[in-house]
Amino acid sequence: MEVIKSNKGGSKLCYQGYMYTKHTTRKTVQWWKCVKRSSTACKGSITTSLQNENPTPGQPHNHDPSDISIKYTKSRYAMKEQAALTRDKPSQIFAQVVSTCEDDVQAMMPREENCKRTMRYQRPAPPVPQSFADVTLPAEFTITTKTNSSYCMTMDRMLRTECWSFVVLTV
Ligand SMILES: [Zn+2]
């Protein structure tokens, strides 16, 4: 038995190929219900201790167990976590996580764009500069230009680096 984090941040209990989300907590036990209760009207349930131990199956499932779904959920969360904890580009994270997935898990993955959008939401905003001394711009962004076309090129390069904030200095 294992408790994993879902892409949306909730906890999912994995046991014998089935996944459950927490339903209710009583004094000594927790009730978990199958994640497919909506999609397949499954009534599968399980109870555990408050420490997520002593799994006791309740109602049976109306579908087969699937390790693939569990691996998929783990992969999606791995992407999200890596996006939050590192400065790796979402495209790099996506490529790296997908390359380690089995074919069946890869087949379940949403399009790369969808995964990358989820990852971008995980990025912490950079600190707000308190003074001009805190503002450090890469040399390429300090170039002043006189023609509109090269100004646009500089803006374009800034956007491609996925900057979160822009400082516009005028004289
Ligand atoms: Zn079920």
Walk me through this protein's architecture.
The protein is an alpha+beta fold and 171 residues long. The protein is built from five helices and six strands. The chain has helices at 67-85, 90-99, 103-108, 112-120, 148-160, and strands spanning 2-5, 11-15, 18-25, 29-34, 45-49, 56-57. The chain has a six-stranded antiparallel β-sheet with strand order 1-2-3-4-5-6, with helices on one face. A hairpin with a 3-residue loop joins β3 and β4. The radius of gyration is 23 Å and the shape is elongated. The model has no long low-confidence stretch (mean pLDDT 83). The structure holds zinc ion. Zinc ion is lined by residues 18, 34, 36, 42, 44, 61, 63. Zinc ion (ZN) binds at residues 18, 34, 36, 42, 44, 61, 63. Keywords: Metal-binding, Zinc, Zinc-finger. Residues 4-63 form the FLYWCH-type domain. Residues 47-56 have a biased composition (Polar residues). Residues 47-68 are annotated as: Disordered. GO terms for molecular function: zinc ion binding.
Task: Record the SSE blueprint.
Layout: E1 2-5, E2 11-15, E3 18-25, E4 29-34, E5 45-49, E6 56-57, H1 67-85, H2 90-99, H3 103-108, H4 112-120, H5 148-160
Antiparallel strand pairs: 1-2, 2-3, 3-4, 4-5, 5-6
Bound molecules: zinc ion.
Strand percentage: 15-25%
Strand count? 6
Pattern of helices and strands: EEEEEEHHHHH
The averaged pLDDT comes out at 83
Structural class: alpha+beta
Which segments are poorly predicted (pLDDT under 50) over 5 or more consecutive residues? none
Q: Name the quaternary structure.
A: single chain
Q: Count up the helices.
A: 5
The rough form would be described as elongated
Sketch the major β-sheet. 6 strands, antiparallel
Helix content class: 25-40%
- Largest beta sheet: strand ordering: 1-2-3-4-5-6
Cα Rg: 23 Å
- List the ligand species: zinc ion
N/C terminus separation:
63 Å
Organism: Mytilus edulis
InterPro entries: Znf_FLYWCH
Protein name: FLYWCH-type domain-containing protein
GO molecular function, one term: zinc ion binding
